[in-house]
Amino acid sequence: MSSWSILLEKIRERPGLYLGETSLYALWKFSHGYAVGYDDGARHAGKNDAVFGFQDNREWEFNHFVYSHYNRNFTTMCAESLILEESSSDEEAFYKYFELLDEFKQMPEYEYKHELINTSTNYNSDFKDSEVLNLEEVKAQIQKMAAEGWELANYCISSAGHTFNFSISVTYRKQK
């Protein structure tokens, strides 16, 4: 168990002692201050540790888990913000955060693989005229990865500019 996980359990038991109140917003501020201090200390000590005890992509997974819990499409809003938005009070959100975190910890862990797939669809010549992004190359790569036991976890379509081809950043996952 990481030092952050141990501290988080202490905060759950006595939030007023560590945060001054029972508040998810206060926990969020505290955790970011802790992360900055920890990262700075780890960097000076030559360590490359995960601050929150979420190895690899666990924090990213937790955000997706929370979005799924509330049947919402994933955005850049962090899990804490969504929990606050869905709760009637900051105190209720604090307890809901730990409830969801406990559920999440029971889920299997995954390993991840990321790749950038460049498509032949050019923003100026192809997409502008047809308004269709050719995804055949992407589909073929996703099917290849599926045959190797990887499932699609996330993707993002982007273009580096008006004269470049579209690229798709794809994330796959496989249960550890």
What does the secondary structure layout of this molecule look like, with pairings?
Layout: H1 3-13, H2 15-19, H3 24-45, H4 58-69, H5 79-86, H6 90-105, E1 110-122, H7 123-130, H8 136-147, E2 151-159, E3 165-175
Structural summary, described in words:
- The chain has 176 residues and is of the alpha+beta class.
- The protein folds into two domains: 3-105, no CATH class; 110-175, no CATH class.
- 53% of the residues lie in helices and 19% in strands.
- It has eight helices and three strands; from the N terminus they run ααααααβααββ.
- It has helices at 3-13, 15-19, 24-45, 58-69, 79-86, 90-105, 123-130, 136-147, and strands at residues 110-122, 151-159, 165-175.
- The chain has a three-stranded antiparallel β-sheet.
- Helix 4 (58-69) runs parallel beside helix 5 and helix 5 crosses helix 6 (90-105).
- The relative contact order is 0.12.
- Residues 52-56 have low confidence and may be disordered.
Q: Helix share of residues? A: 40-55%
Element order: H for helix, E for strand: HHHHHHEHHEE
Overall spatial form: elongated
The structural class is alpha+beta
Uncertain parts: 52-56
**Main sheet: which strands, in order across?**
1-3-2
Number of helices: 8
The count of DSSP E runs of length 2 or more, i.e. the number of strands, is 3
Q: Characterize the largest beta sheet: strand count, sense, and whether it forms a barrel.
A: 3 strands, antiparallel
Short structural description:
With 176 residues, this protein is of the alpha+beta class. It is built from eight helices and three strands; from the N terminus they run H-H-H-H-H-H-E-H-H-E-E. It has two domains: 3-105, no CATH class; 110-175, no CATH class.
